[in-house]
Amino acid sequence: MGKTLSEKVWDEHVVRSVEGEPDLLFIDLHLIHEVTSPQAFDGLRLAGRQVRRPDLTLATEDHNVPTLDWDKPIADPVSRTQVETLRRNCEEFGVRLHPLGDIEQGIVHVVGPQLGLTQPGMTIVCGDSHTSTHGAFGAIAHGIGTSEVEHVLATQTLPQARPKTMAVTVNGSLPEGVTAKDLILYLITQEGTGGGQGFIVEYRGQAIRELSMEARMTVCNMSIEWGAKAGMIAPDEVTFAYLADKPEAPKGAEWDAALAHWRTLVTDDDAVFDKEVVVDAADITPWVTWGTNPGQGAPLGGTVPSPEDFEDASDKVAAENALRYMDLEAGTPLREVRVDTVFVGSCTNGRLEDLREAAAVIKGHKVADGTRMLVVPGSARVRLEAEAEGLDLVFKEAGAEWRGAGCSMCLGMNPDTLAPGERSASTSNRNFEGRQGKGGRTHLVSVPVAAATAIRGTLSSPADLQTVGSN
Amino acid sequence: MEKFTTHTGVGVPLRRSDVDTDQIIPAEYLKRVTRTGFEDGLFAAWRNDPSFVLNNPVYAEGSVLVAGPNFGTGSSREHAVWALQNYGFKAVLSPRFGDIFRGNSGKAGLLAGTVDEKVVQRLWDHLDENPGATVTVDLESRTVRAGDGPDAIEDSFDIDDYTRWRLLEGLDDIGITLGHEADIAAYEANRPSWKAATLPAS
């Protein structure tokens, strides 16, 4: 019997395998940031241990950094201490760091791919659950906790129980105006926040093959939101073309050797997955969340559901709690929901292609009165590339705020937060209670929906703008 | 890590499903560089609600949390485990855990036991009828017990063999792995030269 993609990559990284114990896997790339690493470095110091492979470790500053005045010392002393602690730790242990002000600084999951360090067939970990993003290249990539960060720093390995395998096949092409974000939000609504639990998921099928590299990252990024251990897409010509000119991609004969290997990283025809899910791309429409977990989603063209719509008792209670927190009435058309803040950015949708897409929608329009729009590039390099194309001017002319790189309003940890009761349409990945700031209410949306919402002030898609224009 | 064999303590019924790690501890509390002192951030948003279970003084000594399905989903922050431990929790029972949270618990010494949804419901009812009642979590026999007499609850919980063994022995994972140094070195020696590196070869 053949092997699936994830089984191939897994097997290539087994350092030690013993019955009754987890496999010991070698880790090809360990990404670190300021929030989940300080206690790990402390642990190393206490035990008198070194970083085993600084040459397979990369650090940047993203979660806790401001996106305004990023060239000045960080104002919040606690945040500043955390960032300075990362700098000291990287210095002491010889880890490469891209700090604020560096062109490669930014969200760790944007930085790895843009450098070309994220490559097919790798094992990649980071103390951040959205590490699943890197699976878009055909890598096994997943988030880990701080104890595991310390473990990888000390040993460059991780004991891992072998997950089950799942195929998600998306047949047909995504309809016009439907994005990778809508696809993954739709899938999470269908499968629930626990549907992927215990599985490494391989996304496949025509609609996946037709996605750009950046859109594939959006899909894999949100694998964790339906509980999957990791999400992967087999590398193909799109992947190789993306990597070819990246600074840290192999060059010359090394590239040829790497490419020959990468081409073997596909699921064999006779391989069997433990579970299969099939989705018809034609069923997917612009999708938004109405509740407080990413599985509580609905078509933008629909209405806020009623708790009575759910059969499962705990889903009913969850819907009741969510509607109360979100201050929404069942039956309200989602297009009538007024939004205070629009956030375009994050490791889900903060890459250059996302900014181009947002600019294309917003060009020639103004952000609605009473609505603010933040556009936050995923990395300093993305910011500079966007500025070179004049995208920053498009946003500024529309009345949006153009910021420096970082996690920003995705997680309510840095100065970019929602005020209590404030409602956002956000291209990020989590609509948990208080995720974007205490008492904040989040609707997860695609980039085009975010941009159209900024213009109309209510949840909208670009198609709604055309209607307005023709009146 | 301290050894965990069996624990008996006040059970806390958390009648919620999908409790993500942002609810367990919001991001604003993650700026610290220590492993302690996170108890003030535990369930921070809910603590403002006087009817929230942990605001009932009877649960001040709570050490066994009984939660609905999908506990600990979302962010990888181990701070969620530390916050529970810093508060005094030794064990969490739920029908289903977020993978990363369950892994973090095992590493940090918090027992995360998977129990049947019906058992959670019975424990909730028992704890609501007898506020402050204790729950026993016996790792050796993988058993959870509460109450006595004809209505006593006794059922099994799941935890993977390897994590159970490590918790019972109080073993440090890194120490175990470093015992396999020769295997790691052998693997490293055979890695292809085209594999990505963040620093130039020294």
UniProtKB/TrEMBL annotation, chain A:
Q: Pfam families of this UniProt entry? A: Aconitase (PF00330)
**Domain Aconitase/3-isopropylmalate dehydratase large subunit alpha/beta/alpha: start-end pairs:** 7-457
Would the keyword Hydrolase turn up in this protein's UniProt record? no
Q: What GO terms are given for molecular function?
A: 3-isopropylmalate dehydratase activity; 4 iron, 4 sulfur cluster binding; metal ion binding
Cite the annotated pathway. Amino-acid biosynthesis; L-leucine biosynthesis; L-leucine from 3-methyl-2-oxobutanoate: step 2/4
What UniProt keywords apply to this chain's record, in alphabetical order? 4Fe-4S, Amino-acid biosynthesis, Branched-chain amino acid biosynthesis, Iron, Iron-sulfur, Leucine biosynthesis, Lyase, Metal-binding
Keyword presence, Iron: yes
Biological process per Gene Ontology, one example term = L-leucine biosynthetic process
Q: Where is the signal peptide?
A: none
Q: What is its EC number?
A: 4.2.1.33
InterPro entries per UniProt: 3-IsopropMal_deHydase_lsu, Acnase/IPM_dHydase_lsu_aba_1/3, Acoase/IPM_deHydtase_lsu_aba, Aconitase_4Fe-4S_BS, Aconitase_4Fe-4S_dom, IPM_dehydratase_rel_enz, IPMI_cat
Per its UniProt entry, what is the enzyme's top EC class, as one word? Answer: lyase
The record's remark on the cofactor is: Binds 1 [4Fe-4S] cluster per subunit.
* Reaction(s) this enzyme catalyzes, per UniProt: (2R,3S)-3-isopropylmalate = (2S)-2-isopropylmalate
Q: Which CDD domains match?
A: IPMI
This protein's cofactor list reads: [4Fe-4S] cluster
Residues bound to [4Fe-4S] cluster are: C347, C407, C410
Stretches the record annotates as Disordered: 418-440
| Matches recorded under SUPFAM superfamilies | Aconitase iron-sulfur domain (SSF53732)
What is this protein's function per UniProt? Catalyzes the isomerization between 2-isopropylmalate and 3-isopropylmalate, via the formation of 2-isopropylmaleate.
HAMAP family under this entry?
Answer: LeuC_type1
Return the similarity comment.
Answer: Belongs to the aconitase/IPM isomerase family. LeuC type 1 subfamily.
Give the quaternary structure.
Heterodimer of LeuC and LeuD.
How is this protein named in the record? 3-isopropylmalate dehydratase large subunit
Provenance organism: Nocardioides agri
Q: What is the lineage of its organism?
A: Bacteria, Bacillati, Actinomycetota, Actinomycetes, Propionibacteriales
TrEMBL record, chain B:
Q: Please indicate if the UniProt record lists Lyase as a keyword.
A: yes
Q: Which reaction does it catalyse?
A: (2R,3S)-3-isopropylmalate = (2S)-2-isopropylmalate
**Taxonomic superkingdom:** Bacteria
| Gene3D superfamilies (UniProt xref) | Aconitase, domain 4
Its top-level enzyme class, in one word, is lyase
What HAMAP family has UniProt attached to this entry?
Answer: LeuD_type1
Q: What is the official name of this protein in its record?
A: 3-isopropylmalate dehydratase small subunit
Annotated source species = Nocardioides agri
